[in-house]
Specification:
With 233 residues, the protein is an alpha/beta fold. It has one domain: P-loop containing nucleotide triphosphate hydrolases (Rossmann fold, 3-Layer(aba) Sandwich). The protein is built from nine helices and ten strands. Strands 6-7-8-3-9-10 form a six-stranded mixed β-sheet, sandwiched between helices. Strand 4 and strand 5 form a beta hairpin. The longest helix is centred in the last third of the chain and has 18 residues.
């Protein structure tokens, strides 16, 4: 059976520079893969390539065996990708509920999907009428994840979900991501620079360094010392 997501020898760059070189990965349906790496090694570039914001110079992106390399982001969303970008990217002048309704418009969700998100993140229900721009960083991150989930994606992409968030909310988000995996079966591709947050969330780990895959491992065989060395500044 084909992987849900597959990257085949993908090379991506900006202008004349190359950021990712011959990167391959595969993620099965319901699985979770964590991309680890320091700032600037290509994690966000890889996520933008998967969602379609960047086109690779070489290689292919496959979703459920279908070549989506040339498909625009909105089409990939309709195929079942949900994206939580770095920096969250809320609509600050819309309410919490209105931001979530934008996620509902994208795809397959309905009012029941909205209630499921409220169960995961009760604060979003409590603050439904508040402008998104007035939320704390942690609340905005919960809203960003909720907005992606209301469309009931097959694949959820999360680009550094802990960035700029207070420790207590980081713990809560980690707990919710575990629950999402257990209850929904959605596959996850998570980009992180902190192994402590990622540990226990993913089935497999891939470390980027200098735009290439420096280490690949299952969770069971992960060499934390080797990973820590690659993540060290």
């Amino acid at each position: 059976m084909s992987a849900l997501l597959e990257l085949q020898q993908v090379t991506v760059g900006y202008g004349e520079g190359t950021v990712l070189s011959h990167v391959s990965l595969d993620l099965p349906a319901g699985g979770a893969l964590c991309l680890l790496g320091r700032n600037g090694v290509g994690k966000t570039t890889l996520m933008k390539t998967v969602i379609g914001l960047l086109r690779p110079r070489a290689g292919k992106v496959l979703l459920a065996g279908k070549d989506v390399t040339a498909a625009p982001p909105h089409q990939r969303a309709r195929f079942g990708m949900g994206y939580v970008p770095q920096g969250r990217l809320m609509f600050p002048q819309l309410t919490v509920r209105e931001n979530l309704l934008i996620g509902l418009e994208a795809l397959n969700g309905g009012e029941s999907a909205l209630h499921e998100v409220y169960e995961l993140f009760p604060v979003l229900n409590d603050m439904g009428g508040r402008l998104a721009g007035m939320l704390s960083g942690g609340q905005q991150q919960q809203l960003a994840i909720g907005r992606a989930l209301v469309a009931r994606p097959k694949l959820l992409l999360l680009d550094e979900p802990t960035e700029g968030i207070q420790p207590s909310i980081v713990i809560e988000i980690r707990s919710v991501l575990r629950r999402i995996r257990q209850e929904t079966g959605v596959a996850m591709l998570l980009a992180e620079q902190f192994l402590d947050f990622a540990a226990g969330l993913a089935d497999d780990y891939l470390v980027l360094d200098g735009g290439v895959v420096a280490l690949e491992s299952s969770a069971e065989q992960l060499d934390r010392t080797a990973v820590t060395e690659l993540l060290a500044v």
